């Protein structure tokens, strides 16, 4: 039994999301795609998973306003505002320094969220959320704080449940889950933490690789393990051990569309599989998965999380690169 089913959940997405082999990049079933870009909730992608549990938890606690934050380009911040509107809750999004108008911020405003600039770095968002929660409580409101990426034990339940989901899908496709390698992008750590907590609840030893783009590997590993333990405590299951996952450090290595085209990642996926990879999470994670040794019996499962706004915006850089390459010298 999936212990996550004991927790309240506000359904936002359409699950399970598809699990299928790449159709043209390889002629076998050694690389499988877990299509969380197809969760069906706005532009949320995989963010729909934690938000289902977070919104239900906010309602269960009698909260009337959600307070979250992040960079202006944060897909989670926009998705959280969208989910809050569906849940019938007010929302405030605290935004770090950056572009004034991005797709996630436009979505948040369209959903009725109050967007507030913090005037500080993204790393200070958690402090800003905590301060704003206190101010709202003094005003008589009942706020529900949601940190960047929904990185709480409750939020991690979304990917704990996802572990059960993909396990069942692999079995349905005749693949022994213990022989699969699961590759996930890691930003806030909530997805990976939830996934290894769900894996531990199943007592399942499969290879799980997180591709960290925001913190150095040792720091991220410690954070993920602590968050996974708290998620396991909620589920009443044994916690994961440090050997349950591996972190690949890709911090400071965010790829541009120009470099991705040189290496084939973004263009290959776009023009062969029809999938858009965002430069922050999608491209580094694809590159790690692509270089792994795999067979149809021991496949790599690449978790495609979404990131559509950033993926679309990055196309401009790629087009400019192509114009420079294709335009003869001296031409306009």
Tell me what the structure shows.
The protein is an alpha/beta fold and 332 residues long. The chain folds into two domains: 3-43 and 152-323, Rossmann fold (3-Layer(aba) Sandwich); 64-141, Rossmann fold, CATH 3.40.50. Helix content is 43%, strand content 14%. It contains eleven helices and ten strands. Helix 2 packs parallel to helix 3 (103-110).
According to DSSP, the number of beta strands is: 10
The averaged pLDDT comes out at 90
Structural class designation: alpha/beta
Estimate percent helicity: 40-55%
**Rough shape?**
globular
Report on the biggest sheet.
6 strands, mixed
Number of helices: 11
Q: List low-pLDDT spans.
A: 254-263, 320-332
- Beta percentage is 5-15%
How many separate domains make up the residues? 2
Q: Tell me what the CATH architecture of the largest domain is.
A: 3-Layer(aba) Sandwich
| Radius of gyration from the alpha-carbon trace, in angstroms | 20 Å
What order do the helices and strands follow? EEHEHEHEHEHEHEHEHHHEH
Regarding CATH, which class of the largest domain? Alpha Beta
Physical arrangement of strands within the biggest beta sheet:
1-2-10-7-8-9
The first-to-last residue Cα distance is: 64 Å
Report the CATH topology name of the largest domain: Rossmann fold
InterPro entries: ACCD_DCysDesulf, TrpB-like_PALP, TrpB-like_PALP_sf
Keywords: Pyridoxal phosphate
GO molecular function, one term: D-cysteine desulfhydrase activity
Cofactor: pyridoxal 5'-phosphate
């Amino acid at each position: 039994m999936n212990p996550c089913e004991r927790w309240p959940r506000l359904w936002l997405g359409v699950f399970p999301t598809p699990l299928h082999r790449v159709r043209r990049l390889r002629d076998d079933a050694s690389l499988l795609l877990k299509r969380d870009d197809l969760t069906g909730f706005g532009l949320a992608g995989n963010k729909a998973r934690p938000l289902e549990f977070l919104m239900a938890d906010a309602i269960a606690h009698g909260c009337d306003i959600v307070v979250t934050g992040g960079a202006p380009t944060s897909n989670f911040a926009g998705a959280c505002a969208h989910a809050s509107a569906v849940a019938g809750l007010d929302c405030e999004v605290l935004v770090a320094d950056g572009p004034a108008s991005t797709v996630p911020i436009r979505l948040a405003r369209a959903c009725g969220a109050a967007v507030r600039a913090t005037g500080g770095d993204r790393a200070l968002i958690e402090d800003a959320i905590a301060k704003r929660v206190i101010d709202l409580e003094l005003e008589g409101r009942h706020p529900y704080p949601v940190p960047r990426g929904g990185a709480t034990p409750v939020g991690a339940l979304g990917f704990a449940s996802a572990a059960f989901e993909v396990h069942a899908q692999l079995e349905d496709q005749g693949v022994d889950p213990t022989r699969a390698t699961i590759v996930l992008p890691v930003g806030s750590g909530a997805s990976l933490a939830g996934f290894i907590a769900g894996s531990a609840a199943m007592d399942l030893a499969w290879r799980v690789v997180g591709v960290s783009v925001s913190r150095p590997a040792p720091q991220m590993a410690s954070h993920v393990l602590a968050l996974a333990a708290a998620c396991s405590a909620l589920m009443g299951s044994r916690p994961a051990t440090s050997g349950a996952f591996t972190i690949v450090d890709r911090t400071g290595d965010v790829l541009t569309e120009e470099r991705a085209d040189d290496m084939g990642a973004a263009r290959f996926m776009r023009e062969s599989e029809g999938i858009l990879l965002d430069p922050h999470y999608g491209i580094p994670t694809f590159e790690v998965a692509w270089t792994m040794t795999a067979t149809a019996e021991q496949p790599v499962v690449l978790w495609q999380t979404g990131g559509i706004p950033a993926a679309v915006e990055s196309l401009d850089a790629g087009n400019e690169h192509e114009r420079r390459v294709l335009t003869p010298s001296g031409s306009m």
